[in-house]
Amino acid sequence: MQKNLNKTDELELNYKRVALGMSDIISTKLNLSFSFKRVSVENKIYSAFSQLSSQILMINLLKYKSRGALLVVEPLVLHRLTDKMLGGSGKGESSAFEDFSDSEVFFNQELVNWFTNEYSKAEMGLDYIRSERELQKIHFFFPEEQVHVVTLSAYINNEYAGQVIACHPMD
Fold it and tell me: Domain range for residue 125?
């Protein structure tokens, strides 16, 4: 283990550990080839992060130290994993996305539970608070605040399936 890592490098290393653990859990529980193949960490201004997308997202609010953090699951990832959980192929339908089904909301909660367990193993200290579907309802950061943005690129059967994105305070 390297000593004296800066916070960005330490966060990336921790998320790589979490990504490996999550890849194993999801692959095992859903009996499919799932992996987070890429983990990247960027420092951004929160207002740039908050303009991620105008689409409906599954945004999970987490307690992080005395602040908060966000774990955003893109609809395609959640839709495909829920489809597999319900006995489908994990490909899902290509119809237009309008909102999350009750099954997708349930599976999101399972996914967040698995993430928080992996966060505990990595000694990151993140605990689930609640989920939201609109970023504008969340007030964990000031618009001009610098944040760490961690992007996990998800693959199912070596096919790109979307992203899971985390946002942490820099302090």
Answer: 7-169
Q: Rounded to a whole number, what is the largest CA-CA distance in the chain? A: 49
Contact 33, 150 (CB under 8 A): no
* pLDDT band, very low/low/confident/very high, at 17 (cuts 50, 70, 90): very high
Residue linked to tokens 């996990």: 152
Please report whether residue 1 resides in a domain: no
The C-alpha atoms of residue 5 and residue 77 are separated, in whole angstroms, by: 31
Q: Is residue 43 part of a domain?
A: yes
Identity at 111, one-letter amino acid code: L
Question: The whole model's pTM is what?
Answer: 0.89
Per DSSP, the three-state class of 97 is: coil
Are the C-beta atoms of residues 11 and 148 closer than 8 Å to each other?
A: yes
| Tally of domains within the chain | 1
